[in-house]
Each structure stands twice: as structure tokens, then as C-alpha cells.
Design brief:
28% of the residues lie in helices and 13% in strands. The protein is an alpha+beta fold. It has one domain: Alpha-Beta Complex (Ribonuclease Rh, Chain A). β4 and β5 form a beta hairpin. The radius of gyration is 20 Å and the shape is globular.
Length: 310
């Protein structure tokens, strides 16, 4: 009881502080200017019958959008406090595939913030353009430049890296994928402020992640982490398909026996930022076996309850 009371006391103080701060400041915008889209036709990406004339209005050519998630059992950086969110999968990213499932990466090296580019050339081959590694301020400082403590807090809870600091992983996802997504092009922002596209992409990825609550969808179908049970691939696929209407990519490690990834494919009406995601079938075959799939319980010391007041 005393703990709860103290918690509420803290919340009241934080709320009062927030009111005072909110009255004094307003945060800079990270919204693209889409007024030129008002007179464009409306369609789902990869389903347009006419040429898309303004790439800020619809992701093109990367119109097959993937919201990708991980199920990890540890982070490797537990000692630094990098823990997984209890009862939730984590964000991997938001990727712009071409309509056929192929893709490009690191499309704008002037927005290269990834400390360890992977692959290290734009095409992953020795003859590709070298992606230089980045050693400037972390992208977490970009989020703070725009005052988005709320976004940073959410990302530190749900966008978790394994084996590297979270902020390096976020930078990787932005520079590898968002620079190939037309709706985050610098030209889409009026009076562009450096890094507003980065913050806008992070907000967008969080929104897309929240459309696909993997842990809850699986749990609702009786599929929960267990170190003593196994599941079939079709059980997992069906549990998702009855909620989203489409089969996601289901990824496994351990020779196809340990569930660790889910990719939700979608066509998008309007922009990734604000538009409607329509799930479509995965273009990638599952890497899981048909049966005997383990959905591992996490190491207890690798996770924490995040659904508490900040
Ligand atoms: C949609 O428009 C893009 C860009 O103009 C074009 O490359 C693509 O072929 C079109 N897609 C379809 C399915 O018509
Ligand atoms: C890229 O990585 C490969 C494999 O690790 C390495 O052999 C190659 O030298 C690297 N290329 C550059 C340009 O750093
Ligand atoms: C790069 O190398 C690959 C494989 O060796 C080849 O298929 C491709 O055409 C080359 N690309 C360029 C731009 O030279
Ligand atoms: C996967 O299977 C191969 C061949 O059966 C085996 O050599 C390898 O050790 C297995 N790897 C793992 C991670 O279980
Ligand atoms: C479940 O098994 C995995 C893999 O062996 C292990 O890392 C994890 O700690 C186990 N979790 C629990 C709660 O026993």
C-alpha cells in the first residue's frame, strides 16, 4: 500500500511539473508537409494503377511495408540496464520493400548515423558503395533536440537491441531503411530542421508496432512462452491471421525450432506516418519447422515490467 501511495505521490508531482512545463514550452514540429497530396488520387501502395507523381504522399517504390518484431530472451547488456519489456515482443523496424519483396538499403549517405553499417556497402558486395561508419552524437540526442522525452522513454522500453546499445540499433534502422522510404525524404518537410525526419520515422515505427501486438495476439490464442511446450507453425500463423487477415513471416533460430521473429507485410494508403496499413501475405517463407517450435520463456533477469508510470 505504502509503495502504491508513494507511486501516486510521485505521479502527482510529475503531473504538476508537466502542467507547468507544458504551459511554458511547445515542441518543434516533426510533421511532413503533405498539402500537395490533397489533390492526388488515393490508393494503397503497390496497388496504384497510375504513376505516383509525389513520392511524399505514398511510399514508392518501397510500397510493400514491413513492420518487423523480435522475440529475444536476453539482450546481452543486462548489466547496463538494457532489459526486455515483460509480456511484449520488441520493435525491429519498419522496412520499405519493393512490391515484389526485393529491397534497397542505405539510400542517402548524407543521413548515415549507423556506427556499424551492416552490410558495409550499399549492395552488400565488394563493388557496392562503401557505407562509412558514423561516430557523431547518438540518435537519442536527436530525439531530445525535439524535446521528445516521451518517445525516447517508449523506445527505451520497446525498441531493444541484442548485443549493442539501443540507440545504435535505432540509428541502424533509420539509415539502412528509412532513407529508402520516400515519405521520409528531406524534401517532404517544409523548412526542414535537421533530424526531424529521424524523429518522425521513430514516431511512425512506434505507431506501426502498436498495430500488431504480437504477444497479445498469440496469448489470446493460447500461445504463450513456455520452456516445456512446443507449437506448430500453422498454430502461430493462424493466431495472427485471424486478427490481421494475412500470414506474417514467422522467423525461427536454432535450425527452425526457436521462434524469434515476426514480420507484418502491408500495403499503405497515404503515408506510413498517418495512413492506413492493410496487411498482405508475407513474400518470405517461414524459417521455422512445421512443428516442434519452441516459444521460449525469457531469463527472468533479462526482462522488466514497463507498463508503469515513468
Ligand atoms: C505505382 O507507381 C509507381 C511510381 O510511379 C510505379 O513505379 C509502379 O509501377 C506503380 N505500381 C503499380 C502496381 O501500378
Ligand atoms: C566489409 O566487410 C567485409 C566482411 O567483413 C570485409 O571483408 C571488407 O573489407 C569490408 N569492406 C569495407 C569497405 O570496409
Ligand atoms: C557487382 O558485382 C555483382 C556480383 O559480382 C554483379 O552481379 C554486379 O553487376 C556488379 N555491380 C556493379 C555495379 O558493378
Ligand atoms: C542444425 O542442424 C545441423 C545439421 O543437422 C547441425 O549440424 C547443427 O549443429 C544444428 N545447429 C543448431 C544451432 O542446432
Ligand atoms: C527458458 O529457456 C531458455 C533457453 O534455454 C533460457 O535461456 C531461459 O532462461 C529459460 N527461462 C526460464 C524462465 O526458465
Amino acid at each position: 500500500m505504502a509503495r502504491i501511495a508513494r507511486l501516486f505521490q510521485g505521479v502527482v508531482v510529475a503531473a504538476l511539473f508537466a502542467v507547468v512545463v507544458a504551459r511554458q514550452f511547445s515542441l518543434p514540429s516533426t510533421i511532413p508537409s503533405l498539402t500537395s497530396c490533397l489533390t492526388e488520387p488515393v490508393f494503397y501502395s503497390c496497388e496504384n494503377t497510375t504513376t505516383i507523381s509525389d513520392a511524399c504522399c505514398s511510399p514508392t517504390p518501397g510500397g510493400l511495408v514491413l513492420q518487423t518484431q523480435f522475440w529475444d530472451t536476453y539482450t546481452g547488456l543486462e548489466k547496463q540496464g538494457q532489459l526486455l519489456p515483460r509480456n511484449s515482443w520488441t520493435i525491429h523496424g519498419l522496412w520499405p520493400d519493393f512490391c515484389d519483396g526485393s529491397f534497397t538499403q542505405y539510400c542517402d549517405l548524407s543521413r548515415q548515423y549507423d556506427p556499424t553499417p551492416s552490410p558495409n556497402t550499399t549492395n552488400g558486395l565488394p563493388n557496392g558503395t562503401v557505407v562509412p561508419s558514423y561516430s557523431g552524437p547518438g540518435v537519442d540526442t536527436f530525439i531530445l533536440e525535439f524535446g521528445r522525452i516521451d518517445l525516447l522513454d517508449y523506445m527505451n522500453k520497446y525498441w531493444i537491441s541484442q548485443g549493442s546499445p539501443n540507440k545504435d540499433f535505432w540509428a541502424h534502422e533509420f539509415s539502412k531503411h528509412a532513407t529508402c522510404t520516400s515519405t521520409f525524404d528531406v524534401a517532404c518537410y517544409e523548412n526542414y530542421q535537421a533530424h526531424e525526419d529521424v524523429v518522425n520515422f521513430f514516431d511512425t515505427t512506434v505507431r506501426a508496432f502498436q498495430m500488431f501486438p504480437t504477444f497479445d495476439m498469440l496469448a489470446a490464442a493460447g500461445i504463450v512462452p513456455s520452456n516445456s511446450t512446443t507449437y506448430t507453425l500453422s498454430q502461430i500463423q493462424t493466431a495472427i491471421k485471424i486478427q490481421t487477415g494475412a500470414t506474417p513471416f514467422v522467423g525461427c533460430g536454432g535450425n527452425g525450432t526457436v521462434l524469434n521473429e515476426m514480420w507484418y507485410f502491408a500495403h499503405v494508403l497515404g503515408t506510413e506516418q498517418y495512413g492506413h496499413f492493410k496487411p498482405v501475405e508475407s513474400t518470405t517463407d517461414s524459417t521455422c519447422k512445421n512443428s516442434g517450435i519452441r516459444y521460449l520463456e525469457r531469463t527472468p533477469t533479462s526482462e522488466r515490467e514497463v507498463r508503469v508510470f515513468p
